[in-house]
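Write out the bound-state structure for 5'-O-[(L-methionyl)-sulphamoyl]adenosine.
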Amino acid sequence: MSKNFYITTPIYYPSGKPHMGHAYSSIIADIFARFKRIEGFNVYFLTGTDEHGQKIQKEAEKNKKKPKIFCDEISETFRSLTKILNLTNNDFIRTTEPRHFKSVNEIWKRLIKSGDIYLDKYSGWYSVSDEAYYDEDEIENKNGKKVSKASGSLVEWVEEESYFFKLSAWQDKLLEHYEKNKDFILPNARKNEVKSFVEKGLKDLSISRTSFSWGIPVPDNEKHIIYVWLDALTNYLSALNFPDINSDKYKSFWPADVHIIGKDILRFHAIYWPAFLLAANLPLPKRVFGHGWILSDEKKMSKSLGNILDPIEIIKNYGIDQLRYYLIKEVSLGNDGSISMENLKNCINNDLANNYGNLCQRVFSFIKKNCNNKIPNGNSLNENDLKLIRNVKNSIPSLIDLINKQNLNEYIKKVVNFSFEANKYFNDSEPWVFKKKDPDRMNAILFTIVEQIKNISILLNPIIPISTKKVLNSINISDKDILIDNIQKDNSLNLEKELKDLDILFKKVEDDN
Ligand code: MSP
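---
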């Protein structure tokens, strides 16, 4: 089995500052990247910015800046967001980089060579905001204006000479691919949407524009700019040294294991992208996972609606682990989910402060007080203790399976449940009662509960990396030993060294916060 794993986020339009929707796509991808790493995979995790096209050109003009300067500035805010979100991306690609130009040029040439590109004239509806073409039946009249039914954004009539990609020729091959690779598009509801769209019949796709200049020129016909989606999707290859398909990076990581995207850009990733790749004679990604939207006031966040939630502000007030945990625990990954500060507070208090955080703190201070600050031996565990420990250990294959299906909600539910059970075990076992009358029993309880804390912390590590590292470091487990294997291994606790002090992990949030 190959031990490499390639995961990507969408590359973001640097047209305005990052918001919670962007943070959401990135955090999800980071959690999978971190999990696969502690599972022992060699992970390549890519994110970046999508800098070409009419939307960016217009935005730059509005700000009276040259597009490149405008992009440099905003792309930097996305790059610094990766730090604030504590992402472990290996690379940050910008579509204005030379490595990307090279790769897009090669894709174009391959499509020409395969006979999939022809020159014609486009006339139809285009949304600059979505950078998408729409058919007549995909638009509607709203307040006297023509808008896309799906996104609500304004469309305009476009007529210009354009290169076309023979998308229609790939319809059957795409349907065959969806059929043969049942998990190519997840969740299933999204796959059905895509399938029925393709079944209705695909039209050839306009893949160049002539009415603006900000983008990658078509090789040999520079008055045409390559359609921003053909340009953008290719980033996933550019980061792996494409067109050098003999490079280690390309050979190790292509095809991608999963593209994490929002449901609004599913069509581009699950129809256009595989069709481009088929035509270019390149392997297809193994999966496209389309998550739902984070809603603010029950609506998708957008600049025009003025309902943007700023992740940086929330992180300042509550902490990054807290936000990561909340988004994964409370928003169902495949569906839309509203978030509110009230729920965030409850989640921090109930799950993090009262449950996991409190358990670690209570257990460690008990050990400090009663066991010379060292984890006691587990020589005399009873059936009940062993059962608790085994319960977690035996669940590892099914937890890995959940992650491999991007079923993060079920995963976190199970792990949090382990934490509730551990708390209950500690309370019910009453180690304090045995201090004098049966120290062996007290030791067994403490050993069991620390073993559980260790295992739960490793499982929570991809979601709340900062806090779990603190807990694991305080029981002398170093960062490099934060591995799924160390859950299954017996005797991975260090009984020789004293525990390190653990600061308060999660401050409770008061109502006036
Ligand atoms: N540039 C394209 C992607 C190209 S990928 C080859 C793009 N950029 S975007 O900045 O508009 O959006 C990037 C991602 O953020 C998308 O996955 C989108 O779904 C996600 N989100 C934007 N708003 C969102 C919410 N309100 N909620 C969750 N995610 C949403 O599209």
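---
The chain has a mean pLDDT of 95.
The chain has two domains: 4-330, 340-488.
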